[in-house]
Amino acid sequence: MRSFGSRATALLVILLGLSIPSAPPPSAQKAGATLGPGPKVTIEMIGQGNPAHLQYTRVEAPYVKELIPQRSNGRIEIRLSTRDERSLQGTELVRLLRQGQVDISNVALTFIAGEVRILDGVDLAGLNPTAEQARKVTNAMTAAFNQELERVGVKQISAYPYPAQAFYCRQPITKLDDLRGKKIRTFGVTLNDLVVALGAQPVSMAFPEVYSALERGVVDCGITGTATGNASKWYEVTTHLYTYPLSWGVNAYFVNLAWWNKLDPAVREFLESSLVEMADKLSDLSVEITQDGTDCNTGRPNCKHGTLAKDRPMVEVKATDAEKARFARILDETVIPAWVKRCGDPCGETYNRVIAPITGVKYTKR
After folding, report:
1. Which of 62, 78, 125, 203 has the greatest CB tally within 10 Å of its CB?
2. What is the distance between the alpha carbons of residues 234 and 225, in angstroms, rounded to a whole number?
3. pTM of the predicted structure, to 2 decimals
4. With respect to CATH, is domain 165-247+292-359 assigned 3.40.190.170?
5. Adjacent-strand bridge partners of 317
6. Quick one: what percent of the chain has pLDDT higher than 90?
7. Residue 232: pLDDT above 80?
8. What is the pLDDT of residues 242-260, one digit of tens each?
9. How confident is the model at residue 32 (pLDDT cuts 50, 70, 90)?
């Protein structure tokens, strides 16, 4: 970070609790550069969904409230709020961006895939076994995404996965077939396809409502990230955690395109580099807290970042090889074809051209 001396940088890292790489990539170096003289820029931003989540406390808030203003020598001021603080569900964010009520927003791709169908393609249920692959797929699709997004007045700058999405169930399960007939909270169409293929009933429900729904038995299970559910104390109202990575809840940073294009080029480059660097940090965090969330939910002593469920630890259920093969069949025979049917044949062609070489899973028209 060229705008700080080595001692100041070390102190800042300690104070913020961030792990800054010793040899940052070019994008990170640009983000650390000092902006030249110019007018102050005030930005309205909606960030993570919940201020208690590690993505907010460990990465987004320190970057947005401390690092970015300091690196810009005070030129950049970002007014940051979370979705929960603004009482937003997440589906409104593209509209708010397009209307100019927000300049930058963190967006869960599944929440707005109803408007831009191609966005579901990078996080199809069962597609990505690792966070690393999810990020590769998402980065590879950025140009295709922006071709569609710019038609509605927004642009994706960077993206990253959340922790692995898992089944949290309020009653004992020992195998995948135990989900048959259960009501399961989902948050995206491709997860609905998966749940139906498993013989269960998907239930659409906003995240803040799920805890009480699980507690009262309105739903039998819910899907969310291993660390996300821990931060929201789902371990208090569930007993079993099926930890196969169903998806990764990919999120992205979008901007209002008209506002973005009017920015001073130096400011635009600075912000783009900062958002890319922040997504890198969030991706690293997702890898780390996927396992940590499982450890914390199940009461294991190596729980480091979340809340240890020591009074009533959950039981982890792992997928057998046969169950992994079943997920692969559902992806191939149900999830991908259903998405292409909703999205259109060009999406299938884009999938085979961009995504299939990374995942090794090709779309075949049926």
Report:
1. 125
2. 11
3. 0.85
4. yes
5. 242
6. 83
7. yes
8. 999 999 999 999 999 999 9
9. low
What residue segments make up the domains of the chain, in order of their start?
6-161+249-289, 165-247+292-359
Buried b (16+ CB within 10 A) or exposed e, 160-169: bbbbbbbbbb
Question: According to the model, what pLDDT value does residue 25 have?
Answer: 36
281 contacts 18 by C-beta, under 8 angstroms: yes
Alpha-carbon span 189 to 196, nearest angstrom: 11
- Please indicate whether the domains covering 6-161+249-289 and 165-247+292-359 agree at the CATH topology level: yes
Tokens 């922790």 belong to 163
**Residues 255 and 104 sit within 8 Å (Cβ to Cβ):** yes
pLDDT tier at 289, thresholds 50, 70, 90:
very high
* Whether the Cβ atoms of residue 49 and residue 108 lie closer than 8 Å to each other: yes
Q: Say which residue the tokens 């009520």 belong to.
A: 101
DSSP H/E element including 178? none
What lies within 8 Å, CB to CB, of 94 at 6+ separation is: 107, 112, 115, 116, 152, 154, 254
